[in-house]
TrEMBL record:
GO terms for molecular function: large ribosomal subunit rRNA binding; structural constituent of ribosome. It holds the Pfam family Ribosomal_L10. The gene is rplJ. GO terms for biological process: translation. Part of the ribosomal stalk of the 50S ribosomal subunit. The N-terminus interacts with L11 and the large rRNA to form the base of the stalk. The C-terminus forms an elongated spine to which L12 dimers bind in a sequential fashion forming a multimeric L10(L12)X complex. Forms part of the ribosomal stalk, playing a central role in the interaction of the ribosome with GTP-bound translation factors. Keywords: Ribonucleoprotein, Ribosomal protein, RNA-binding, rRNA-binding. PROSITE patterns: RIBOSOMAL_L10 (PS01109). GO terms for cellular component: large ribosomal subunit. This is Large ribosomal subunit protein uL10. Belongs to the universal ribosomal protein uL10 family.
Amino acid sequence: MDRSQKSEAVASLNAVFQEVGVVVVTRNLGMTVDQSTELRGKIREVGATYKVAKNRLAKLALKDTPYEGLEEYLSGPTALAWSEDPVAAAKAAVEYAKTNDKLEIVGGSMGGQLLDEAGVRALASMPSLDELRGKLVGLINAPATKIAQVVNAPAAKLARVFGAYGAKDAA
């Protein structure tokens, strides 16, 4: 990697760190290519990104971003997972780490808040943004459904009464 490629990589990572909602630092302890590909796929499914970056370049890219405290986690064979959704990257990485002991969650950051391994695992246990949206829509929709049922109930009762009178007259 020559100097221009390195500066391009630093600029690209810096732009990413300016926009994302969460960054998770993982340590890969002997993962195979197939395992790494599987992890990337699972992370991509939730709308997140997983990238192995040189620690030195990642440390340079962290400067002047909300994630400046992550430098302490960048040592050894690390990789970064990030997403705009504050929960997606953490949830995907933690789920994969449960099934594969070669992936270790080192730490992370959400906005300016530095998280240790326990913090990332706690973040992963929270519902995702899409799940929260679904619950919110359900809560908003429930009163409207109940109002429609209450408004329609008297008309349905009247229809049953008229039907009963009609059946009585026919008999």
